[in-house]
Amino acid sequence: MNASATARTGRIKARRAARGSGVEYAARAGLTARGVIYLLVGVLALRIAFGDGKKQADRNGAVAEIAQQPFGAVLLWALAVGLVGMALWRLSEACFGSAGPDGRAAKKRLLSAGRFVFYAFVAYSVLSFAAGSGSGGKGSSDQQSRDVTAKVLNLPAGQWIVGAAGVGIVVAGLLIGGRAVLRKYHKKLKLGQMSARTRRLVDVTGVGGGAARGLVFAAAGCFAVRAAIDYEPDRAKGLDDTIRSFAHTPAGPWLLVCVAAGLVLFGLFSFAMARWRRI
Q: Where are the bilayer-spanning segments (predicted)?
């Protein structure tokens, strides 16, 4: 067997391993962990809408909420392990491609690489909290956003970089919401294993949850663009401040209630994805 054949055989074996049961369990654990975070963020946002503004409606707030529960430390470690699984799954997709006929396309593998970096950071922050650092990251999502924006604005062409990033987040939010409304997630699900009633319930969570998630992304992007235009890093908002901003629209707290309910739905949708997604 020559060297090229040996290399080809090695790649095939690696690809099969990447799509094996271990990666599948990691992916499903990761989707479950994502669901827990969004569910708790949505609940915290609902509490803010109804007058309890003491908690942060972001990942740090969700982690702190888990830590306060009975067996909170065990739950935090379980959440962290799930997020590590999510990161490893995305890494395997970046290296070997994802499920579907176009799963090995360069665009999809690049997106998976970006998701790997994001979930690796999230997993690290939760692991740091679980290990006793006392925070799910360096400050709230709002402070992190302001700090990063301030640093980037001080770079050459910093305003353009922040503005471009903000526009990119807005576009991502619109795509997330639009794909959810169009039910593009259907091609990722094992629809044949669902009853008609289950499929309807999944569509309620997928459409409502995806639309709310897309709206939050788009709003956060708009704040970043405004920070770039005004050259004021304090204009940038993290997840918590972005969610709170919906209460200050003409629709009042009821828009925040709708967005918060949508985030809860997205958490439930993530649980459905953990059960029926094609890996």
A: 25-50, 70-89, 110-131, 160-182, 202-229, 254-274
Residues 249 and 253: their CA atoms lie apart, in Å, by 8
DSSP codes of every residue in 94-154: HHH--SSTTTT-HHHHHHHHHHHHHHHHHHHHHHHIIIIISSSSSS-HHHHHHHHHHHHHT
- Looking at the predicted structure, is the pLDDT value of residue 193 above 80? yes
C-alpha to C-alpha distance for 143 and 64, rounded to whole angstroms:
17
pLDDT computed for residue 3 by the predictor: 54
Which residue shows structure tokens 């999510």?
86
CA 87, 92, 98 angle in degrees (round to 5)?
110
Residue 6 confidence (pLDDT) above 80: no
Give pLDDT, residue 16.
54
To which residue do tokens 């391993």 refer? Answer: 17
Helix (H, G, I), strand (E, B) or coil at 184: helix
pTM of this structure: 0.86
In degrees, to the nearest 5, what angle opens at C-alpha 256 toward C-alphas 274 and 201? 35
CB atoms within 10 A of CB 182: 11
Candidates 104, 95, 233, 105; CA nearest to 161 is: 233
Cβ atoms of 189 and 245 within 8 Å: the answer is no
> Mean pLDDT throughout 26-36?
95
Residue type, 266: F
CA distance 51 to 268: 24
Q: Which is it for the CA torsion 44, 215, 238, 236, positive or negative?
A: negative
Mean pLDDT score, 82-98: 90
Tokens of 42: 């949505």
